[in-house]
């Protein structure tokens, strides 16, 4: 059979499976969203942690780390042991929220405008919300900080979340102190909270669950721990140091133990509220460990965050649903973040969308043990830095048994082939010995890359200015673009924006203390303004700026002698 015919047969099979499963689920919840908590649509708690590797859990063989609550959750769940994500944060989140490969969505990297997801992508929150769910996000979104890409523009009814890729990054509001008492976004408005970030996010998620206990809800708890900087109270990390671990590992484990306590608190509250039986709790992480330190346990996996070896992309995945799934099962079938949307839609009794191409598969028949004939499939992973993905650059294709890893040496692709069932550490390269397998998987990857790249190309979505949805709009270096864009002192970028309607604005530029007298410049759609800035100043405001409607490039910088340096924030505030 040709690969095309195989693909066609597989798609037909999947459609049949999906249609049957969805029909059963839809019939099950025909009574609607209300009523008895045991029979209404299940609620969903999705816990996603940041940079926690497969080995950073007691139940995965880590003898040093203390994660009793997550270990218990794993034991009460169905665990998928070969579950994969993308090698870094935002790409995984795009897959998780849409059920589609992130290269289709605009979220191709973590910063410089490449983490923004196109607003016409339909998120899990949008789909669940349409079925009557109340949706809340607590923690890290990382798919766009401004309208129309914020979580509250993308299906979440409320939330308490951070900007960009994490606290202490250039997207943090000016003056935000770090992991303790951070300035967060409360449903789109900045608010300084009290306490340690993971505690605050969990507490907010618990409050949301309590307030919505009488209806189906979707709580997305996406912690920024244990992503660096490794800030956590001494009582969590000192014991690990005293036990002989290096400080980096001790702090990382300390953050995870704090996280574990928070997950325990949330699960206890679900139980107290009588919601345990009919709430689906999913736990996973967004990529492998950040850096490989001598003391950090890796479960024997090769590579780390940012690589397509399993250390970068194989993560824990637990699904607990006491009312429906038998606890303690372990499933070795390969799966990935793109599968979460179709799985949850089925579990929640929502028909698979007719309007969008989902890449993922409904895992529910596997999770509840119904699946007999499960089709083989190939999963694809890739990440790189740059405005445009490049074929073969840091990519992988994964079949149930084999994994093809691709790199570029200069312009030439290099292929490595591993039998990951026999060789989970990806140590023995079989590419030379099994060139037929390499050829088959390479062709599959090439088709995939062409397919996802042709969905919409890689031009970034635009940030909208001058709408009533967001005022002021604050642009940060998270989303600026251009050849000099970066997070260095002398970086300089621009923002691709859409001025929704002509109007008058005040534009404030914020920058590090000016080293000497200089000139501030602001340009957008025909506006070309300059203003002197005194030595030591940290901001300046252009008042009554007339903005024309349309798509344009917003530029702002300081000119000091021959040097031009980008500003750190641009705040655009509409005049009444
Ligand atoms: Ca991450
Ligand atoms: Ca959308």
- What are the distinct ligands in this entry? calcium ion
Q: How large is the radius of gyration?
A: 24 Å
Structural class: alpha+beta
Main sheet summary:
10 strands, mixed
Main β-sheet, spatial strand arrangement: 7-6-5-4-8-1-9-11-2-12
State which percent range the strand residues make up: 25-35%
Helix content: 10-25%
What is the averaged pLDDT score?
A: 94
Poorly predicted runs of 5 or more residues: 1-5
User: How many DSSP H or I helices?
Assistant: 11
Number of domains: 3
Tell me how many strands there are: 27
Please report the distance between the alpha carbons of the first and last residues: 66 Å
CATH architecture of the largest domain: 3-Layer(aba) Sandwich
Label the overall shape. Answer: globular
Q: What do we call the CATH topology of the largest domain? A: Alkaline Phosphatase, subunit A
CATH homologous superfamily descriptor of the largest domain: Alkaline Phosphatase, subunit A
**In CATH's first tier, which class of the largest domain applies?**
Alpha Beta
